[in-house]
Every structure is written in C-alpha cells, then in structure tokens.
Design brief:
alpha/beta; Rossmann fold; eight-stranded mixed β-sheet; 10 strands; globular
Length: 214
C-alpha cells in the first residue's frame, strides 16, 4: 500500500472512532511522538506591521478579494464557506484526502475546484506565483506543516498570503502533539516573510498570516 493509501486508511479509522476511543488513540500517539524542539523566535522586524485581529473571520475581510485561493485541508467545508462569502474568490481550490464529509453547498459552488489526495503533490503541481492566499489546515504535525509550507511558498504571488491555522504548541495528554508553531516559526525565520495578521481564537488556537515580500 502507498503512503497515501495508509494515510487514507488512518484518516477513515480516526473519523469513524467514537469520541471515547479517540482520546485513547491520542494518548497512544503522544506516547510515541517526540517532544518538539523549541521554536526559533521570529525577528521583531518581521512583526512591526502585523495587525492583531479578534479572529480569523476578520482576517478574511482584509485579504485580497476576487482572487485565486487554496485551502489545504477543508474537512467539512465550514471555513471554505466563509472564504467564499468573505473573499468572493474567482476560484477556490480545495485539497483534502477525502471530500466525503464536505458540505454540499461548497462542493456545488462553481468557483470551487476540488483536489483529492495528499497536499504536497497538489501544491507541487500548481504554477508558481498563482495564488493570492493559501490557507494551510491539514495535518498539524511538525514535519507535515513544514512540508506544506515549503511546497506552498513559491505558489503564493508576491504580496500574497500564506496563512496557518492552529498556530500553537501543544504537548498535552489526551490531545496529542501540534507542531504548527514550531514549523511556522522555522519557516518565517528562514524565509524572512513578514507577519501580516495574527488572529486571536478560542482555546488559544491562533491563526497567523505571512505575506510574501513584493
């Protein structure tokens, strides 16, 4: 079985689990995952123009309107619906391992183009500098987010945005390990992209938007 086949099987099993079993699965995953390394600090110069927003929906109102957008990991399509309504994109590309749970009105929208499979091969297949915004909300492990960031970066237009969901460092029994914070900080430091928006969210699962220098 291919890596994609294993991932599809794992995802299907996880989504079929009752909530009580999911907790035990998360505990087991935590037991075998290494604690992430400390994230590097983003230089202050890259934060000077950052806008602090109450939530990610406020961010959508400030992002480019009528452009080409991608959401990497859409799940049930709730945030995709918000992107369609707030940004009015000409085209919204949705990438996910399955669209079986995605809401019908999103999939039926003529502006939506779906891409079923792993995120990195999809991003690598896209033309460079073709997206006004790419929203990364797929696998939250450090290596997965790092791979998505590196694959997505050249696909963002100069002046466009690379946005990450759940910008948090979590190593917590019953939940698991989130490597988004570490991966995004590493990318920001290595790329020099400034932070444009920082979105406060409940549970301290923030969104952070980096802007590709023009």
């Amino acid at each position: 079985m291919t890596n994609e086949g294993f991932y599809r099987l794992e995802l299907a099993l996880r989504r079929a689990m009752p909530e009580s079993f999911k907790k035990f699965w998360r505990l087991g995953r935590l037991a075998v995952q290494a604690v992430p390394a400390s994230a590097p600090q983003i230089p202050q110069a890259q934060l000077e123009g950052c806008q602090l927003l109450t939530n990610r929906y406020e961010m959508l109102r400030r992002l480019p309107q009528g452009g080409v957008v991608a959401e990497i990991g859409t799940y049930q399509g709730s945030f995709a619906r918000c992107i369609l309504d707030a940004m009015a994109p000409a085209r919204l590309h949705l990438a996910d391992i399955t669209f079986s749970l995605c809401r019908a009105d999103v999939l039926a929208d003529p502006r939506v183009e779906r891409h079923e499979g792993l995120s990195v091969p999809f991003l690598q297949s896209c033309a460079d500098a073709s997206f006004d915004m790419i929203y990364v909300d797929a696998d939250h492990g450090h290596e997965a987010v790092r791979a998505d960031a590196l694959a997505a970066a050249p696909k963002v237009k100069p002046g466009g945005y690379l946005v990450f969901n759940d910008f948090a460092r979590i190593v917590r029994p019953g939940f698991g390990v989130l490597g988004v914070h570490q991966a995004v900080c590493e990318f920001a430091v290595s790329s020099g992209w400034p932070v444009a928006f920082f979105c406060l969210e409940s549970e301290a699962l923030y969104d952070i938007a980096l802007r590709r220098p023009a």
